[in-house]
């Protein structure tokens, strides 16, 4: 069965209710769970569905889950920046310490990844980023080479994103990707907007190592579209307020946990 046919059957299975469970899909499709997950990922990247606990739901044209082309779901950058700022600064400094002189890295847009920038001066890095805030912070560093993808600018986040399904990234492969998240839980790394999910998946596919920067408050949230499972994260940097259950969740996934003081 071709991917297009499976996708059509998935959408048909949602029927009038607009929801289908993973268990129902595994019972009705002649495909492995991993194949079904990939099918759902493609549909989610196109904005057709939203993965939720236990399955997936349709994104209706007038649904609040449907992405407005001019804005992104979630907290505006200017508001998010002030939240837990001291923790984010410590996390950013520790993340920057993992960079090696002369290497190429990718930095996803976010208020925590932004805090890496002051500590990258003099390392002669090549940085691919989709964040204009990060570009602005790196511009004074004469030895830092900056690369940008093409796409539309989303002003509330000051981030450049291309529509799902459109590959706008330069031909770039990096040993390290530094990224943030709106939430982290047993389901994985989550973001509030499917366009962000699609953009971050493109970055993950170009990285040898995924380094997640999140303050401890992100473990107390559990909603959003899934960017990746915990198994795809190599290093997680957070602050000392992370609770023991969250520590165990990270360690049991085989992730290297780093605590920023």
TrEMBL record:
InterPro entries listed in its UniProt record: Carb_Metab_HTH_regulators (IPR050313), DeoR-like_C (IPR014036), DeoR_HTH (IPR001034), NagB/RpiA_transferase-like (IPR037171), Tscrpt_reg_HTH_DeoR_CS (IPR018356), WH_DNA-bd_sf (IPR036390)
GO molecular function: DNA binding; DNA-binding transcription factor activity
Keyword vocabulary terms for this entry: DNA-binding, Transcription, Transcription regulation
SUPFAM superfamilies attached to this UniProt entry: NagB/RpiA/CoA transferase-like, Winged helix' DNA-binding domain
Domain HTH deoR-type: from-to ranges: 3-58
Key word Transcription regulation present: yes
Source domain of life: Bacteria
Annotated PANTHER family: HTH-TYPE TRANSCRIPTIONAL REGULATOR SRLR-RELATED, HTH-TYPE TRANSCRIPTIONAL REGULATOR ULAR
Name of the protein described by the UniProt record: DeoR family ulaG and ulaABCDEF operon transcriptional repressor
């Amino acid at each position: 069965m071709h991917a297009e046919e499976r996708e059509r059957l998935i959408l048909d299975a949602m029927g009038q209710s607009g929801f289908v469970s993973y268990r129902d899909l595994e019972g009705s499709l002649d495909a492995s769970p991993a194949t079904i997950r990939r099918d759902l990922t493609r549909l989610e990247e196109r904005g057709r569905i939203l993965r939720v606990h236990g399955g997936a739901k349709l994104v209706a044209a007038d649904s609040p889950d449907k992405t407005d082309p001019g804005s992104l779901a979630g907290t505006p950058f200017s508001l998010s920046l002030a939240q837990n700022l001291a923790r984010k600064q410590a996390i950013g400094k520790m993340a920057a310490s993992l960079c090696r002189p002369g290497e190429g890295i990718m930095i996803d847009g976010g208020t925590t990844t932004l805090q890496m920038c002051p500590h990258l001066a003099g390392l002669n890095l090549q940085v691919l980023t989709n964040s204009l805030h990060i570009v602005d912070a790196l511009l004074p560093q004469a030895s830092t080479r900056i690369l940008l993808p093409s796409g539309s600018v989303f002003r509330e986040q000051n981030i450049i994103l291309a529509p799902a399904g459109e590959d706008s990234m330069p031909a770039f492969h990096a040993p390290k990707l530094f990224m943030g998240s709106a939430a982290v839980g047993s389901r994985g790394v989550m973001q509030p907007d499917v366009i962000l999910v699609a953009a971050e998946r493109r970055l993950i596919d170009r990285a040898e190592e995924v380094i997640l920067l999140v303050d401890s408050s992100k473990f107390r949230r559990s909603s959003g579209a899934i960017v990746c499972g915990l198994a795809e994260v190599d290093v997680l940097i957070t602050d000392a307020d992370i609770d023991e259950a969250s520590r165990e969740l990270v360690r049991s996934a085989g992730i290297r946990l780093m605590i920023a003081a």
